[in-house]
């Protein structure tokens, strides 16, 4: 895996990352740090990438477990150290999993497997940040109109 990050100019703090898979992501800094708030901050992308990594795992595990999953959202909230390096000190993952007749024990197992075995991003961050997890299940059957 590789990535090239290039500063886009002499003014501001905007950077363009080009991934080995051929995609581009723009990053920018906060105005108080010379940025212009034109794109996500690099640490926001670390958090977003971690959320994407674990959500991917959870969906894949639930599908392989025969669950009728219809949606998966994970909201990550974090705290960072006050002084440099401002590493993450706490991260909470709250999953909202939608589907039909989803089994809570299977959802819980999928989240646990992601964070203990498969999600390299969260496993890496766990070495310095306290991680907590919660989830809720939304049954799509409850959203069907009467007589459906």
TrEMBL record:
Read off the SUPFAM superfamilies from this record.
Answer: OsmC-like (SSF82784)
Give the top-rank taxon of the lineage listed in the UniProt record for this protein: Bacteria
A Pfam match is OsmC
Protein name per the record: Putative redox protein
Species of origin reads Glaciimonas immobilis
């Amino acid at each position: 895996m590789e990535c090239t990050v290039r500063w886009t100019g002499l003014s501001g703090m905007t950077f363009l990352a080009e991934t080995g898979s051929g995609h581009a992501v723009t990053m920018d800094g906060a105005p108080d740090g010379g940025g212009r708030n034109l794109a996500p901050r690099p640490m926001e992308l670390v958090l977003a990438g971690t959320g994407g990594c674990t959500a991917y795992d959870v969906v894949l595990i639930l599908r392989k477990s025969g669950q009728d999953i219809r949606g998966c959202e994970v909201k990550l909230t974090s705290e960072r150290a006050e002084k440099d390096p401002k590493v993450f000190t706490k991260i909470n993952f709250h999953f909202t999993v939608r589907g039909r007749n989803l089994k809570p024990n299977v959802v819980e197992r999928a989240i646990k497997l992601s964070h203990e075995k498969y999600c390299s991003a969260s496993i890496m961050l766990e070495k310095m940040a306290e991680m907590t997890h919660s989830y809720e299940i939304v049954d799509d059957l409850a959203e069907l109109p009467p007589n459906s």
